[in-house]
Amino acid sequence: xxxxxxxxxxxxxxxxxxxxxxxxxxxxxxxxxxxxxxxxxxxxxxxxxxxxxxxxxxxxxxxxxxxxxxxxxxxxxxxxxxxxxxxxxxxxxxxxxxxxxxxxxxxxxxxxxxxxxxxxxxxxxxxxxxxxxxxxxxxxxxxxxxxxxxxxxxxxxxxxxxxxxxxxxxxxxxxxxxxxxxxxxxxxxxxxxxxxxxxxxxxxxxxxxxxxxxxxxxxxxxxxxxxxxxxxxxxxxxxxxxxxxxxxxxxxxxxxxxxxxxxxxxxxxxxxxxxxxxxxxxxxxxxx
Length: 288
Hints:
Number of strands: 8
Radius of gyration: 19 Å
CATH architecture of the largest domain: 3-Layer(aba) Sandwich
Strand order of the largest sheet: 2-1-3-4
Helix content: 40-55%
CATH class of the largest domain: Alpha Beta
Order of helices and strands: EHHEHHEHHEHHEHHHEHEHEHH
Number of helices: 15
Shape: globular
């Protein structure tokens, strides 16, 4: 059984218990041991990095150092946490002077970062360590014929030399459920989530363009692996209906919810009742 340090970050446990519940249940069914990390801080994405770069290095290096003491790689369900941790790990591996300065601070807390563990998104860990064929054996209610558009999220894909995440990984993980991945022109575009606090008009336009592109391409659902992206694409559908009279009816499902349903878990187990845009069509499909 592969074991991991599970870094939840702030957003998922505070706002998205459906993501956490589905992820934990799916991981258990796949034979993955997730060990909740203790003594860790917020990753600071993106705010802390903007106004205290060194502080951002220290807090993320501290998380990595704790993981090293525990002896397992880090997995996280949050794109922002993944991006911050991976970015800091990469930076400090290539900038020894910064690493020395960071470790001066960490030693005050009995920690030292050496760079001996990996930082991984939970979906990539499922794909690499469990494997598509083993996951396929767990599918008992395939989502045949369901058209799903994937929103990857900026921090999962960029910068590629840091994240090292291949988009085909998530595509294959959706396809293994039996669903059809819907290609759409704006698949690389930001959803606008991190823009929302500083430019609401632009953030809404980005979400609107994205949802329109998905809908016109024939998607029935959207899947995400980022809580902020999920919230943006879910919540803005309500706002767009009120402000523009546009109805998209595109349920936004977190990837573990989709996989859990295909593995035979019920809607309560994967927290579908907590999704803002009702996912009734996918439930209707599963009962056919």
